[in-house]
Design a protein that fits this description.
It is a single chain. By secondary structure, the protein is α/β, with parallel strands linked by helices. 34% of the residues lie in helices and 11% in strands. The chain is built from 17 helices and 14 strands. It has a ten-stranded mixed beta sheet, sandwiched between helices. Strands 1-4 form a two-stranded antiparallel ribbon. Helix 10 links the parallel strand 10 (322-325) and strand 11 (353-356). Helix 3 (59-73) packs antiparallel against helix 4. It is globular. The relative contact order is 0.13.
């Protein structure tokens, strides 16, 4: 039960009283502000701040309440526990109390003030280990926060814990040797996807307010789709990769996972920014050998990052939008396609132009190219493990040490051994040919064809009509898989990492013919650094359709 308390006179009230002189008997008593209670299920940053400002809840009560929800739904020792959280920040309640003590002076002094954030357990957090889901790394204690975690704290957020994940970010089953298999928040007989499985389930079940994921080939967008969430894979160079355990640095990126578009916009504001770290992976162009950006000014010039993404939260954002639908990316699942058709009809009704569009050579894009995680994993992981000294934690620093430890899922042993045979600094001629195809040839080939589709021109550059703002297709061609299996994700998630263009997934609607009902996600792909456009259209859809429904198994305590 949340306690309520009368809120002392706000700064605004004080200013009003001061302006009136404060001398008449009629204003001797300050106006009473009615406390607004806080509800954990489906809470937003806005609802949290309203409750804090009116005295409906304290920051400590907020953090304690989410910890209570984690204990009740995630690790209660029963067959229904979700297993989405691997660690709770031991300092979270202390940080909340400190905010409460200073609240009368500071008020809400940051856009994410007191917001409980749950990062995937491959983001460095100095208060907790960063394991990548593996027992082998259970004592890894990086000395500094990841760049993005530090930025979130500076915006006022409290890192409440760490989320379970598909071990090493290898797949979509959502299993780790550290915590086991993450369950789907909507149907606990189903999987949560991956690799950001824990974040997807925890945020869907309101075990925290917002979270972070990492995405190499779909790892933010697949679990977001299965959790009815908004998930953003940013343009590749927009978010620093410093302090995020890598899978393949050539196409890794971190991004937000939230229940609403507006909360993801706030998260983006905090997560983006220039980072001069050698691990930031913020290159000046899409070319793999491009030099790193050298300054904040260069970063802003190249990316065009806005002062705030919240400027693009337009409830009428669909009106006038031009949406190119890639029918070739629709599968044969009737449930998914029916929800998608309803979503397209709703967009048209809200004023969007919705037209079918063809991506040239799509079968080649999705069939002839591949992710480079097998090639880059050993090299990038070892560089990460040596980015802090092991005097304090004695963590593994060599790839052979990881293999010898046995601290990983047995079914990943052969994959780990294979990746260990590839030396990125000494590739064989055959390996170099494959690597160059996917790091030099692929981005040019894919970007050219996606830009043709977005610009609505043929191969010769002749106009086929007005350009499109986004390309749209189902995030997944199928549904959640049974627990322990992979979902029917398809290969739509490859377009964003193969091009380095941004993609946003959001709920298209609910598949109410399933029992229990399941969310169906749709993905929008935009031009490089067109995150504002994605946010504007997604917010317009959210406000017009209200497509998200919370899971029924994790109600208020």
């Amino acid at each position: 039960m949340i306690k309520t308390r009368l809120f002392a006179v706000t700064a605004l009230s004080l200013a009003v009283l001061a302006g009136c002189g404060g001398s008449s008997s009629s204003d001797s008593a300050p106006p009473v502000v009615e406390p607004v209670p806080f509800s954990y299920v489906e809470a937003t940053v806005s609802s949290l701040h309203t409750s804090l400002e009116t005295g409906g809840v304290t920051c400590e009560e907020v953090i304690q309440g989410y910890i209570d929800r984690i204990h009740a739904y995630d690790d209660d020792g029963t067959e229904t526990e979700l297993r989405s959280v691997v660690n709770i920040n031991p300092d979270a309640l202390f940080e909340a109390r400190e905010k409460d003590l200073n609240f009368e002076v500071t008020g809400i002094d940051g856009p994410l003030y007191c917001v409980p954030v749950l990062p995937k357990d491959n983001f460095n957090t100095k208060q907790m280990p960063t394991t990548g889901g593996a027992i082998a790394f259970q004592y890894n204690r990086p000395l500094e926060d990841a760049y993005t975690i530090r930025r979130l704290r500076e915006a006022g957020a409290i890192i409440i814990g760490k989320a379970n994940m598909d071990e090493f970010a290898f797949g979509f089953t959502g299993a780790s040797s550290l915590r086991g298999l993450v369950k789907n928040a909507y149907d606990q007989s189903k999987g949560a996807g991956g690799s950001s499985s824990g974040t997807g389930t925890a945020i869907a079940a309101s075990l925290a307010m917002v979270g972070t994921g990492s995405d190499t080939g779909g790892s933010i967008r697949v679990p977001s789709s299965l959790g009815g969430l908004v998930g953003i894979r940013p343009s590749l160079k927009l978010v620093s990769q410093d302090g995020i355990m890598p899978l393949a640095s050539w196409q890794d990126t971190g991004g937000p996972m939230c229940r609403t578009v507006e909360d993801c916009a706030l998260m983006m504001d905090a997560m983006v920014g220039f980072d001069d770290s050698p691990h930031a992976n913020q290159r000046t162009s899409f070319e793999i050998d491009a030099p790193a950006m050298s300054s904040e000014a260069e970063y802003k010039t190249l990316t065009g990052v806005p002062d705030t993404y919240t400027d693009y939260l337009d409830a009428d954002g669909l009106n006038g939008a031009r949406i190119g639908v890639v029918r070739e990316l629709f599968g044969d699942n009737e449930t998914v396609n029916a929800v998608m058709e309803d979503a397209l009809a709703a967009m048209e009704a809200a004023g969007a132009t919705v037209e079918d569009v063809t991506v040239d050579d799509l079968s080649t894009i999705l069939g002839d190219y591949s992710s480079m995680s097998s090639y880059e994993f050993q090299h990038d992981l070892v560089a990460y493990l040596n980015s802090w000294v092991n005097v304090m934690d004695g963590h593994i620093q060599t790839y052979q040490g990881l293999l010898d430890s046995g601290g990983y899922l047995p079914n990943y042993q052969s994959s780990l051994e294979y990746r260990g045979t590839i030396d990125l600094d000494n590739l064989t001629p055959e390996q170099q040919e494959v690597y160059s195809k996917n790091t030099v040839e692929r981005p040019v080939f894919v970007r050219e064809r996606l830009m043709r589709a977005l610009d609505n021109v043929d191969a010769a550059g002749n106009s086929l009509g007005q350009p499109y703002d986004v390309l749209l297709y189902p995030t997944m061609t199928g549904l959640a898989g049974d627990l322990g299996g992979s979902p029917s994700a398809g290969s739509n998630n490859r377009l964003s990492p193969f091009s380095q263009f941004p993609a946003l997934t959001l709920p298209a609607g609910m598949a109410t013919n399933l029992d229990p009902a399941q969310p169906i996600g749709m993905e929008m792909l935009g031009r490089e650094y067109a995150e504002p456009t994605l946010i504007k259209i997604a917010y317009g859809y959210q406000e017009q359709v209200d497509p998200r429904q919370p899971p029924t198994f994790t109600p208020e305590l």
